[in-house]
Amino acid sequence: MKKKFLLSIAILSVIGAMKCNAQGLETTVVQDLTEEHVFSQGIEGPAVDKAGNLYVVSFGKDGTIGIIKPGQKPELFIELPKGSTGNGIRFNKAGEMFVADYTGHNVLKINMKTKAVSVFAHEEKMTQPNDIAMSPSGILFASDPKWKDQTGQLWRIDKKGTVTLLEGNMGTTNGVEVSPDGKKLYVNESIQRNVWVYDLDKKGNISNKKLLYKFEDGGMDGMRCDKVGNLYIARYGKGEVAVLSPSGALIHTVKLKGKNPTNVTFGGPDRKTIYVTLQERGAVEYFRNSSAGRE
C-alpha cells in the first residue's frame, strides 16, 4: 500500500500545464523560449541562477556561454578560454558557476561578478567530461563518455577540486544527477539505454549499483530531479522528456518540438518551468510542471 501511495504522489507531481487535444487526452504545452539557431549544435548547459537567469552554452558558436534574462532575448555572457568548450553547467549554494569543459578535460569555475574563469579541476585521464551534477554538500560528479568505443567513466570532484575515479568500464555515460536528499546518484548510458542508481554517502562514495530503468529505443542525454525525486531525462533522438519515479516507474513523457534534446533544467519564479535545449534546432523550448526542481 505504501508503494502505491508514493507512486500516486509521484504521478501527481508531474501533471503540469495541460490542455486537452481532439481526442480528449491531456498533453503538456511546449513552447519556444528562443528562435532557432541562436545557439550552435553544441547547445547544452542549461542552468538557472538565483535571479532566474538561464545560462546555455554555445551561444552563436562553441566555446561560449549565453544568458537569457527573464523576458529578454539571449545574449553573450562569456567567451571561454581558448581550447575550452562548455557542456553541462551547475551552480553551488554560493552562486558560483561550474562548467564541464570537454575539450580541455576540465571543470571550470566562473566568478559571476567578475566573470573570471579558472580551472577548478583537471584530469588528463578524462575523455571529456560531459555532464556534471552537484550534491547538496557541494560535491561534483561528472560523466565521461568515450563515444567511439561506446564506453564511459564516472568521476567525483570534491570541494577542493580533487578528482577521483568512481567507476570505469561503463557504457557511454552521459546524464548524471543527485536525488533531493543527496542519498542517490543517477547516471545514464546513452547508447546502452540504461539508467543506473547508486547509494551515495555524505563523502561522495557510491555503492549498491542497481538498474533503475532500461529504454528499448532512442538515446539519452542530460537529467534533472524535481523536489520529490522524480527524474526528468532528455531523450535524444526521441524528441521527448521522460519522467521516472524514484522507484523506476515510467510515469510521464512530454513530446517536444525538436527531435534531439540534450539537457533539461528547472527555473522560473516557482522553479516549475522546465527548459530543454534542442541540438538540431539550436534553440530552447520550455513547458510548465506542477513540481519544482530540487535545486
From TrEMBL:
Positions binding a divalent metal cation in this chain are 174, 221
The Gene Ontology terms for molecular function here are:
metal ion binding
Cofactor binding mode, per the note? Binds 1 divalent metal cation per subunit.
Q: Which UniProt keywords apply?
A: Metal-binding, Signal, Zinc
Q: Which residues form the active site?
A: 221
- SUPFAM superfamilies xref list: Calcium-dependent phosphotriesterase
Residues forming the SMP-30/Gluconolactonase/LRE-like region domain are 44-278
- Cofactors: Zn(2+)
- Residues of the signal sequence? 1-22
* InterPro entries assigned to the protein according to its UniProt record, in alphabetical order: 6-blade_b-propeller_TolB-like, SGL, SMP-30, SMP-30/CGR1_Lactonase
- Any Pfam family matching the protein: SGL
Q: Where does substrate bind?
A: 130
Q: List the protein's name.
A: Gluconolactonase
